[in-house]
Protein backbone atom coordinates (compact mmCIF):
# COMPACT_ATOMS: atom_id res chain seq x y z
CA UNK A 1 0.00 0.00 0.00
CA UNK A 2 2.75 2.38 1.03
CA UNK A 3 4.69 1.58 -2.08
CA UNK A 4 1.66 2.31 -4.16
CA UNK A 5 1.22 5.72 -2.58
CA UNK A 6 4.87 6.56 -3.12
CA UNK A 7 4.69 5.41 -6.72
CA UNK A 8 1.57 7.50 -7.23
CA UNK A 9 3.21 10.54 -5.69
CA UNK A 10 6.25 10.12 -7.87
CA UNK A 11 4.17 10.00 -11.01
CA UNK A 12 2.03 12.94 -9.94
CA UNK A 13 4.83 15.26 -8.85
CA UNK A 14 6.15 16.15 -12.29
CA UNK A 15 2.60 16.98 -13.39
CA UNK A 16 2.11 19.35 -10.49
CA UNK A 17 5.24 21.22 -11.28
CA UNK A 18 4.55 21.41 -15.00
CA UNK A 19 2.78 24.75 -14.81
CA UNK A 20 5.83 26.24 -13.15
CA UNK A 21 8.35 24.84 -15.56
CA UNK A 22 6.49 25.65 -18.77
CA UNK A 23 8.19 29.03 -19.02
CA UNK A 24 11.33 28.22 -17.08
CA UNK A 25 13.42 27.92 -20.24
CA UNK A 26 13.13 31.68 -20.74
CA UNK A 27 14.68 32.52 -17.38
CA UNK A 28 18.38 32.48 -18.17
CA UNK A 29 18.54 33.93 -21.66
CA UNK A 30 20.49 37.13 -22.26
CA UNK A 31 18.03 38.20 -24.95
CA UNK A 32 15.09 37.92 -22.56
CA UNK A 33 14.48 40.22 -19.62
CA UNK A 34 12.80 38.28 -16.85
CA UNK A 35 11.42 38.96 -13.40
CA UNK A 36 10.24 36.06 -11.28
CA UNK A 37 8.64 36.60 -7.89
CA UNK A 38 7.69 33.58 -5.80
CA UNK A 39 5.13 32.89 -3.10
CA UNK A 40 7.60 33.25 -0.25
CA UNK A 41 8.42 36.79 -1.39
CA UNK A 42 4.75 37.73 -1.43
CA UNK A 43 4.32 36.17 2.02
CA UNK A 44 7.21 38.15 3.42
CA UNK A 45 6.08 41.36 1.74
CA UNK A 46 2.64 41.02 3.29
CA UNK A 47 4.31 40.96 6.72
CA UNK A 48 5.79 44.39 6.29
CA UNK A 49 4.40 47.07 8.51
CA UNK A 50 2.79 49.86 6.62
CA UNK A 51 1.16 53.04 7.70
CA UNK A 52 -2.49 52.08 8.37
CA UNK A 53 -3.55 55.43 6.94
CA UNK A 54 -1.95 54.63 3.61
CA UNK A 55 -5.01 53.18 1.94
CA UNK A 56 -3.48 52.13 -1.38
CA UNK A 57 -0.59 50.59 0.54
CA UNK A 58 -2.99 48.50 2.61
CA UNK A 59 -4.89 47.40 -0.48
CA UNK A 60 -1.61 46.39 -2.01
CA UNK A 61 -0.64 44.30 1.02
CA UNK A 62 -4.05 42.64 0.92
CA UNK A 63 -3.57 41.62 -2.68
CA UNK A 64 0.03 40.52 -2.23
CA UNK A 65 -1.09 37.98 0.40
CA UNK A 66 -3.21 36.24 -2.21
CA UNK A 67 -0.51 35.91 -4.86
CA UNK A 68 1.57 32.82 -5.51
CA UNK A 69 3.82 33.74 -8.37
CA UNK A 70 4.51 36.46 -10.86
CA UNK A 71 6.57 35.89 -13.96
CA UNK A 72 7.29 38.49 -16.57
CA UNK A 73 9.36 37.88 -19.68
CA UNK A 74 10.04 40.51 -22.31
CA UNK A 75 12.15 40.21 -25.40
CA UNK A 76 13.01 42.20 -28.47
CA UNK A 77 14.52 39.26 -30.31
CA UNK A 78 12.26 37.92 -33.06
CA UNK A 79 13.61 34.44 -32.54
CA UNK A 80 12.52 34.34 -28.90
CA UNK A 81 9.26 36.13 -29.70
CA UNK A 82 8.34 33.21 -31.92
CA UNK A 83 9.49 30.75 -29.30
CA UNK A 84 7.34 32.48 -26.67
CA UNK A 85 4.28 32.49 -28.89
CA UNK A 86 4.69 28.79 -29.60
CA UNK A 87 5.18 28.04 -25.90
CA UNK A 88 2.07 30.00 -24.97
CA UNK A 89 0.05 28.15 -27.63
CA UNK A 90 1.24 24.79 -26.34
CA UNK A 91 0.62 25.84 -22.76
CA UNK A 92 -2.95 26.88 -23.56
CA UNK A 93 -3.62 23.52 -25.17
CA UNK A 94 -2.57 21.68 -22.04
CA UNK A 95 -4.11 24.22 -19.64
CA UNK A 96 -7.35 25.51 -21.07
CA UNK A 97 -7.74 29.11 -19.95
CA UNK A 98 -10.62 31.37 -20.81
CA UNK A 99 -9.89 34.30 -23.09
CA UNK A 100 -10.80 37.36 -21.09
CA UNK A 101 -10.00 39.97 -23.65
CA UNK A 102 -8.17 40.74 -26.84
CA UNK A 103 -6.99 44.26 -27.58
CA UNK A 104 -5.23 45.78 -30.52
CA UNK A 105 -3.13 48.63 -29.33
CA UNK A 106 -0.85 50.52 -31.69
CA UNK A 107 -0.53 47.52 -33.93
CA UNK A 108 0.24 45.15 -31.09
CA UNK A 109 -2.11 42.32 -30.28
CA UNK A 110 -2.67 41.93 -26.56
CA UNK A 111 -4.38 38.81 -25.28
CA UNK A 112 -5.37 38.13 -21.70
CA UNK A 113 -6.42 34.68 -20.50
CA UNK A 114 -7.72 33.69 -17.08
CA UNK A 115 -8.66 30.67 -15.06
CA UNK A 116 -11.67 31.63 -12.95
CA UNK A 117 -12.18 30.60 -9.38
CA UNK A 118 -15.42 30.29 -7.42
CA UNK A 119 -16.94 33.51 -8.75
CA UNK A 120 -16.64 35.22 -12.11
CA UNK A 121 -14.27 37.93 -10.95
CA UNK A 122 -12.18 35.52 -8.84
CA UNK A 123 -9.04 34.52 -10.70
CA UNK A 124 -6.60 31.67 -10.06
CA UNK A 125 -4.32 32.28 -12.98
CA UNK A 126 -3.84 35.13 -15.40
CA UNK A 127 -1.78 34.96 -18.54
CA UNK A 128 -1.07 37.95 -20.73
CA UNK A 129 0.70 37.77 -24.04
CA UNK A 130 1.64 40.81 -26.09
CA UNK A 131 3.06 40.01 -29.47
CA UNK A 132 5.49 42.67 -30.53
CA UNK A 133 6.77 43.18 -34.02
CA UNK A 134 10.20 44.56 -34.65
CA UNK A 135 13.12 45.46 -32.46
CA UNK A 136 11.51 48.43 -30.69
CA UNK A 137 8.28 46.62 -30.03
CA UNK A 138 8.92 44.00 -27.42
CA UNK A 139 7.02 40.81 -26.86
CA UNK A 140 5.71 40.38 -23.33
CA UNK A 141 4.63 37.25 -21.51
CA UNK A 142 3.17 37.74 -18.06
CA UNK A 143 1.88 35.00 -15.79
CA UNK A 144 0.27 35.66 -12.43
CA UNK A 145 -1.06 32.92 -10.15
CA UNK A 146 -2.78 32.95 -6.80
CA UNK A 147 -6.36 33.51 -5.77
CA UNK A 148 -7.30 37.13 -6.28
CA UNK A 149 -10.05 39.35 -7.58
CA UNK A 150 -9.76 40.87 -11.04
CA UNK A 151 -10.80 44.22 -9.60
CA UNK A 152 -7.75 44.25 -7.37
CA UNK A 153 -5.38 44.14 -10.29
CA UNK A 154 -5.29 47.89 -10.76
CA UNK A 155 -3.64 48.16 -7.32
CA UNK A 156 -0.85 45.96 -8.59
CA UNK A 157 -0.34 47.84 -11.85
CA UNK A 158 -0.24 51.10 -9.90
CA UNK A 159 2.43 49.88 -7.49
CA UNK A 160 4.59 47.89 -9.87
CA UNK A 161 5.43 49.15 -13.30
CA UNK A 162 4.36 46.07 -15.18
CA UNK A 163 4.57 45.94 -18.96
CA UNK A 164 1.10 46.04 -20.48
CA UNK A 165 -0.21 47.62 -17.29
CA UNK A 166 -2.81 49.68 -19.14
CA UNK A 167 -4.25 46.56 -20.75
CA UNK A 168 -4.44 44.87 -17.36
CA UNK A 169 -6.28 47.87 -15.99
CA UNK A 170 -8.87 47.54 -18.72
CA UNK A 171 -9.27 43.89 -17.80
CA UNK A 172 -9.85 44.84 -14.18
CA UNK A 173 -12.61 47.25 -15.11
CA UNK A 174 -14.41 44.71 -17.21
CA UNK B 1 18.86 -2.04 6.88
CA UNK B 2 18.05 1.12 8.77
CA UNK B 3 21.67 1.54 9.73
CA UNK B 4 22.84 1.29 6.15
CA UNK B 5 20.19 3.75 5.09
CA UNK B 6 21.24 6.15 7.83
CA UNK B 7 24.90 5.73 6.92
CA UNK B 8 24.13 6.39 3.28
CA UNK B 9 22.19 9.45 4.23
CA UNK B 10 25.08 10.76 6.32
CA UNK B 11 27.58 10.16 3.58
CA UNK B 12 25.43 11.87 1.01
CA UNK B 13 24.91 14.81 3.32
CA UNK B 14 28.58 15.22 3.87
CA UNK B 15 29.66 14.99 0.29
CA UNK B 16 27.05 17.33 -1.06
CA UNK B 17 28.38 20.74 -1.93
CA UNK B 18 26.64 23.62 -0.19
CA UNK B 19 26.75 27.37 -0.51
CA UNK B 20 28.51 27.50 2.85
CA UNK B 21 31.25 25.16 1.64
CA UNK B 22 31.55 27.17 -1.55
CA UNK B 23 32.33 30.28 0.50
CA UNK B 24 35.05 28.48 2.42
CA UNK B 25 36.52 26.84 -0.66
CA UNK B 26 36.71 29.98 -2.76
CA UNK B 27 37.77 32.44 -0.06
CA UNK B 28 41.43 31.95 -0.95
CA UNK B 29 40.96 31.09 -4.61
CA UNK B 30 42.36 33.08 -7.51
CA UNK B 31 40.12 35.87 -8.87
CA UNK B 32 37.95 35.77 -5.74
CA UNK B 33 37.64 38.37 -2.99
CA UNK B 34 36.04 37.35 0.29
CA UNK B 35 35.25 39.31 3.41
CA UNK B 36 32.94 39.21 6.40
CA UNK B 37 30.97 42.00 7.96
CA UNK B 38 30.27 41.73 11.67
CA UNK B 39 26.95 43.32 12.57
CA UNK B 40 28.75 44.84 15.56
CA UNK B 41 30.23 47.58 13.38
CA UNK B 42 26.76 49.07 13.42
CA UNK B 43 26.26 48.57 17.14
CA UNK B 44 27.82 51.80 18.21
CA UNK B 45 26.36 54.71 20.09
CA UNK B 46 27.23 56.92 17.16
CA UNK B 47 24.01 56.12 15.34
CA UNK B 48 21.56 56.55 18.25
CA UNK B 49 19.80 53.30 17.55
CA UNK B 50 16.25 52.81 18.79
CA UNK B 51 15.26 49.67 20.67
CA UNK B 52 13.64 48.36 17.51
CA UNK B 53 16.80 48.91 15.50
CA UNK B 54 18.93 47.19 18.11
CA UNK B 55 16.57 44.23 18.14
CA UNK B 56 16.79 44.00 14.38
CA UNK B 57 20.59 44.00 14.51
CA UNK B 58 20.54 41.15 17.02
CA UNK B 59 18.72 38.97 14.54
CA UNK B 60 21.72 38.85 12.22
CA UNK B 61 24.81 36.94 13.23
CA UNK B 62 27.04 37.10 10.25
CA UNK B 63 27.40 38.57 6.81
CA UNK B 64 29.77 36.87 4.36
CA UNK B 65 30.59 38.32 1.00
CA UNK B 66 32.29 36.54 -1.87
CA UNK B 67 33.05 38.31 -5.13
CA UNK B 68 34.48 36.93 -8.35
CA UNK B 69 36.28 39.62 -10.30
CA UNK B 70 36.11 39.08 -14.03
CA UNK B 71 38.84 40.14 -16.44
CA UNK B 72 39.87 39.43 -20.01
CA UNK B 73 41.76 36.28 -19.11
CA UNK B 74 39.32 34.46 -16.88
CA UNK B 75 36.14 34.36 -18.99
CA UNK B 76 36.01 30.56 -18.94
CA UNK B 77 36.43 30.42 -15.15
CA UNK B 78 33.82 33.16 -14.78
CA UNK B 79 31.21 31.15 -16.65
CA UNK B 80 32.10 27.95 -14.83
CA UNK B 81 32.01 29.52 -11.36
CA UNK B 82 28.85 31.54 -12.04
CA UNK B 83 27.07 28.38 -13.14
CA UNK B 84 28.39 26.53 -10.10
CA UNK B 85 27.16 29.23 -7.71
CA UNK B 86 23.74 29.44 -9.33
CA UNK B 87 23.49 25.67 -9.37
CA UNK B 88 24.24 25.50 -5.65
CA UNK B 89 21.37 27.85 -4.90
CA UNK B 90 19.08 25.37 -6.60
CA UNK B 91 20.45 22.16 -5.08
CA UNK B 92 21.10 23.49 -1.57
CA UNK B 93 17.39 23.79 -0.65
CA UNK B 94 17.10 27.54 -0.93
CA UNK B 95 13.75 29.05 -1.67
CA UNK B 96 13.92 31.66 -4.37
CA UNK B 97 12.14 34.87 -3.49
CA UNK B 98 12.83 36.90 -6.56
CA UNK B 99 14.96 36.57 -9.65
CA UNK B 100 15.76 39.20 -12.24
CA UNK B 101 17.61 38.93 -15.52
CA UNK B 102 17.99 41.96 -17.70
CA UNK B 103 20.58 42.52 -20.44
CA UNK B 104 23.12 40.29 -18.80
CA UNK B 105 22.59 41.60 -15.27
CA UNK B 106 21.34 38.70 -13.17
CA UNK B 107 20.24 38.94 -9.55
CA UNK B 108 18.33 36.75 -7.16
CA UNK B 109 17.38 36.65 -3.50
CA UNK B 110 17.11 33.26 -1.84
CA UNK B 111 16.26 32.19 1.69
CA UNK B 112 16.31 29.27 4.06
CA UNK B 113 13.98 28.97 7.02
CA UNK B 114 10.43 28.21 8.05
CA UNK B 115 7.69 30.74 7.38
CA UNK B 116 8.69 34.18 8.52
CA UNK B 117 11.54 32.89 10.61
CA UNK B 118 14.38 33.27 8.15
CA UNK B 119 17.73 31.75 9.06
CA UNK B 120 19.65 32.64 5.96
CA UNK B 121 19.52 35.05 3.06
CA UNK B 122 21.66 34.66 -0.02
CA UNK B 123 21.81 37.42 -2.59
CA UNK B 124 23.35 36.66 -5.96
CA UNK B 125 24.33 39.35 -8.45
CA UNK B 126 26.11 39.06 -11.78
CA UNK B 127 27.34 41.61 -14.31
CA UNK B 128 28.84 40.48 -17.63
CA UNK B 129 31.93 42.74 -17.43
CA UNK B 130 32.64 42.78 -13.71
CA UNK B 131 31.94 39.32 -12.39
CA UNK B 132 29.54 37.97 -9.83
CA UNK B 133 29.03 38.11 -6.10
CA UNK B 134 27.28 36.28 -3.31
CA UNK B 135 26.16 37.85 -0.05
CA UNK B 136 25.19 35.41 2.65
CA UNK B 137 23.41 36.73 5.70
CA UNK B 138 22.86 34.26 8.50
CA UNK B 139 20.98 34.86 11.67
CA UNK B 140 17.98 33.95 13.71
CA UNK B 141 14.41 35.03 13.22
CA UNK B 142 15.15 37.60 10.56
CA UNK B 143 11.67 38.89 9.86
CA UNK B 144 10.92 41.06 6.83
CA UNK B 145 10.57 44.07 9.11
CA UNK B 146 13.96 43.43 10.70
CA UNK B 147 15.57 43.22 7.29
CA UNK B 148 14.03 46.53 6.24
CA UNK B 149 15.16 48.12 9.50
CA UNK B 150 18.73 46.94 9.00
CA UNK B 151 18.76 48.25 5.44
CA UNK B 152 17.73 51.65 6.76
CA UNK B 153 20.44 51.60 9.46
CA UNK B 154 23.09 50.85 6.84
CA UNK B 155 21.84 53.75 4.76
CA UNK B 156 21.80 56.03 7.77
CA UNK B 157 25.28 55.04 8.88
CA UNK B 158 26.70 55.78 5.44
CA UNK B 159 29.32 53.07 5.83
CA UNK B 160 31.79 53.22 3.01
CA UNK B 161 34.47 50.61 2.88
CA UNK B 162 36.77 49.78 0.01
CA UNK B 163 35.38 46.28 -0.05
CA UNK B 164 31.95 47.58 -0.86
CA UNK B 165 33.30 48.94 -4.12
CA UNK B 166 33.65 45.40 -5.43
CA UNK B 167 29.96 44.92 -4.68
CA UNK B 168 28.91 48.23 -6.16
CA UNK B 169 30.47 47.24 -9.46
CA UNK B 170 28.03 44.37 -9.66
CA UNK B 171 25.00 46.62 -9.45
CA UNK B 172 23.33 47.77 -12.66
CA UNK B 173 24.52 51.19 -13.77
CA UNK B 174 22.48 53.97 -12.36
CA UNK B 175 21.08 56.11 -15.11
TrEMBL record, chain A:
Keywords: Signal. The keyword Signal applies. It comes from the Bacteria. Residues 1-19 form the signal peptide. Pfam families: DUF4252. InterPro entries: DUF4252 (IPR025348). This is DUF4252 domain-containing protein.
